[in-house]
Amino acid sequence: MASKPNLKPGRPWFSAGPTAKRPGWSSQAISHELLGRGIRAPEVVERFAHGLRLTRELLQVPADWVLVYVPGSDTGAVEAAMWSMLGERPVQVLAFENFGKVWATDAVEHLKLNPEVIAAPWGEWPDTSGVDPAKDLVFPWNGTTAGVRAPNADFIALDREGLVICDATSAAFAMPLPWDRLDVVTFSFQKALGGEAGLGVAALSPRAVARLDHYEPPRPVPKVLRLRDGKGFDRLLATGSMLNTFSVWTLEDWIDAVEWGLAVGGLEALIARTDANAAVLEAWVRRTDWIDYLARDPATRSTTSVCLKIVDPRVTAMPEAARQALVTRMKALVEGEGAAFDIESHRNAPAGLRIWCGCTVETADVEALTPWLDWAFETALAE
Known about the structure:
The protein is built from nine helices and 14 strands. It is an alpha/beta fold.
């Protein structure tokens, strides 16, 4: 049985959302000047616009795209795009993890679009050979709950007629995104840069803006999801204006995170930090016989939301409820020691572990984490 490790991660936060704050974060670093001001005050609107400009720079969004804030984190951003844009053409949805399934449910039950749902079991990337460039497509680039990501974007045609709505919430700032094959890219503050939850961003290509300009959806669209005004795309949204009252503190915290990203070397540095963290975890998985990736194909394994399954025969023989109880006990053991927090899999995923390896996590902390996982497993199994 493994002995209890001596070294603990200095920052034991491995949640997949909200994720760890940037290294060195302090509430004192957040600007307080505009707290308590009206959300429509010119200074506040300009500050929100400044946040969009910094985000564009760090994420390397093409110059002819526009960015808008949306309430409801990434969920709100995806649903704003779906409610405001879909219906002109047939729709396809890739559903290979929890949120892809949510977007499929939205399209089927709420928007009544009769979409073609291209599904795959947990841990697998779907067969994209049937993706039709004449149809609109909705899909997550990185499945936060399954640890499966797109291996590439070759299945998306450059000369497509339909729009591609990409949920990139756990991919943005951590993986290269093929902007020329996407039309709507959404993400939230709470994922790759450790911002506060509640706000999302939708980046819209010229083709997406054109859809908003000429297509009026045949359904009521709630105000908080409304990207159109009476004339088409509501262009005020691209200037820092908001659909409703947003948290200035949350925005200031986001600006702090983006400024950190730029200061440490920009997008390339953030991707390199993420890759280094994932590589440490991969080395541990390779030498550890009781654990493996949920994602079967190495080409589709996430480097941010790394989802793991327990493959020890003593555990695989257990009923699902017993496996879940074992994971719950492991989580309690490491949290009780202050060694790691929030390492369990998503509630709708198979029982296992999920370790966030995004850029705000330090590589040394991932290295310090793995002996604690071994200890927790052996301790929980022996109880």
